[in-house]
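Reviewers asked in the last cycle whether our approach scales beyond single polypeptides. To address this, we selected a multi-component target totalling 224 residues and predicted its structure end to end. The input consisted of the following lines:
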Amino acid sequence: GNSVTQMEGPVTLSEEAFLTINCTYTATGYPSLFWYVQYPGEGLQLLLKATKADDKGSNKGFEATYRKETTSFHLEKGSVQVSDSAVYFCALSDSSWGKLQFGAGTQVVVTP
Amino acid sequence: EAQVTQNPRYLITVTGKKLTVTCSQNMNHEYMSWYRQDPGLGLRQIYYSMNVEVTDKGDVPEGYKVSRKEKRNFPLILESPSPNQTSLYFCASSLSDRREAFFGQGTRLTVV
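The resulting structure, written as structure tokens, was:
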């Protein structure tokens, strides 16, 4: 079956540092890949997505590239802010009726 | 405003007392799902629905029921809640499979 593995947290960074969260996946087909973000006390929001190999998703300074050869979708941001403190989830969706397969989530804490 | 609305946001109940968590979306989405979020496990799908009167089990369906009598509503029913169902629950909807999902704000359920 499908699975998503992402690095464990918490990841603690200083403001303006570079952020990378690793995500690798296992899937039988050609899934769509997503990063969702969950701010404290809120639901999940879509951060970015990629639907085919070599696509790059980007939003709010975050980027991730769909790498089929390494089955990865690593999230990066060049200069984080305190407001980026949240839990980040990598997820995939194949044709199985809209089901999202999530990683365990990575908590990111950005300090001033 | 496009949204998924869950109620209640917080609920404390006792073992065995039937409860329903409501979910409604105003985006005319075909797909709706329920997930539970537990520390270290990410989000796991409980049930999903592809359209009115079409539902199926996700990864962790035991102890839960759903119904889809109208396109916009997808309630989650716990007939006899137990403490191991203490969790954070999210409803989500999407336009079709492989598309991004929109999440509700979550329902934090405690069963004592």
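The longest strand of chain B covers residues 42-51. We regard this as preliminary and will revisit it once experimental data from Aim 1 are available.
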